[in-house]
Design brief:
By secondary structure, the protein is of the alpha/beta class. It contains eleven helices and 20 strands. The chain binds zinc ion (2 copies).
Length: 365
């Protein structure tokens, strides 16, 4: 199959041929139909986060099940599925206490005594392992994943839009519904209006938030934020912005959500809080970053939390998000900036580095 391979961090992806194994008893083989380009991919491509090489990135995907292993019960060939990197084992402390997004995956990965899922012919005529990134590797015509890394969805759902549910929308909507548990009328500020931020804003609107304040330095993204439900969209690089929001909201917002992965935007989220408010950090920040609350913040009962992948329970959450889309509540059409082919992947990531567009989605014919 054709795949976009990362040979080394800092290099462009290379389109090459890779072999994919047959499904083990609990695995699912999927014909990939669409995959979004996510900022987290870029962290691995640019080397901000380490990974074994060569590897195939891509983790925001939708496709059609081609074959399943002998023990797979949850999906069958022909099912339309969305993948999720929050593969869950089902029996660890996190899984059995309903916090499956924190599960480290347990036996959902192949162990060292099993053949790798992805290989290619090496220089000496032997086989070389190609590392599966986040146990998905979706920038490829096919994916071989554990059955606990995908969920079947309504076949009426267009797969290019469904792909976004695999990461950006699950993360943004999960922050609102699962991590923040927004009460109707509460005020929400979202720092960063990329794919995750826009999904967060849209979910805040669905949840019945009061003011939904979007912050992004780029004017085009502020306009998109308004389309998706922001009641106001402001430039956080203007020094007057944070004090103005604190004043206008009578002391700050109930929930400030960071959706970029930068120190400055996380610090902004904390500064926007009212007494008793909660800052939620969604972005993958550089590994040496730290976010904190000061003494007065703590005396004011402010809270700070991470919410990896929106603290999802994706087998339940994703079909609900599909239903929201099909009923016209969730606006995925506005979040997709462009559809591209696998061959155009490096241009797509260049655009992301520029920071101007919302989401690029690769579609496979
Ligand atoms: Zn992602
Ligand atoms: Zn688990």
């Amino acid at each position: 199959m054709k795949a976009a391979i990362l040979e080394a961090a800092g290099q462009p992806l290379r389109i090459g041929d890779v072999d994919i194994a047959d499904p083990a008893p609990h695995e699912v083989l999927i014909d990939t139909k669409a995959c979004g380009l996510c900022h987290s991919d870029l962290h691995f491509i640019d080397g901000a986060y380490p990974h074994a090489m060569p590897a195939i990135p891509g983790h925001e995907a939708a496709g059609i099940v081609a074959a399943v292993g002998s023990e797979v019960k949850t999906v069958k060939p022909g099912d339309h599925v969305v993948s999720c990197l929050s593969a869950f084992c089902g029996h660890c402390e996190f899984c059995v206490t309903g916090r499956m997004a924190l599960c480290l995956g347990g036996d959902t990965r192949r162990s060292g005594d099993q053949p790798p899922r992805l290989t290619r012919s090496g220089g000496d005529g032997g086989r070389e392992t190609v590392n599966q990134m986040l146990n998905l590797s979706a920038f490829a015509e096919r994916m071989l994943i554990h059955e606990h890394a995908c969920v079947a969805i309504d076949k009426d759902m267009p797969l290019d839009r469904a792909a976004l549910l695999g990461c950006a929308v699950t993360t943004g909507a999960g922050a609102i519904f699962n991590a923040c548990k927004i009460v109707p009328g509460e005020t929400v500020a979202v720092v960063g209006c990329g794919g995750v931020g826009l999904a967060t804003i849209n979910a805040a609107k669905i949840a019945g938030a009061g003011a939904v304040i979007a912050l992004d330095p780029i004017a085009e993204k502020r306009e998109l934020a308004k389309v998706l439900g922001a009641t106001e969209a402001l430039d956080p690089t203007d020094e007057a912005t944070v004090p103005a929001i604190v004043k206008a909201t009578g002391g700050g917002v109930h929930h400030a959500i960071e959706a970029v992965g930068r120190q400055a935007s996380a610090d902004t989220a904390v500064k926007l809080l009212r007494r008793g408010g909660t800052a939620t950090i969604l972005g993958m920040m550089p590994l040496d970053c730290k976010v904190g609350l000061g003494a007065m913040d703590l005396l004011g009962g402010k809270k700070l939390q991470g919410a990896i992948m929106g603290m999802n329970h994706f087998p339940v959450d994703l079909p609900r998000l599909v239903d929201f889309y099909l009923r016209g509540l969730l606006d995925l059409d506005t979040i997709i900036a462009e559809r591209i082919s696998l061959d155009q992947i490096n241009q797509g990531f260049d655009k992301m580095r520029g920071g101007h567009s919302a989401r690029s989605v690769i579609v496979f014919d």
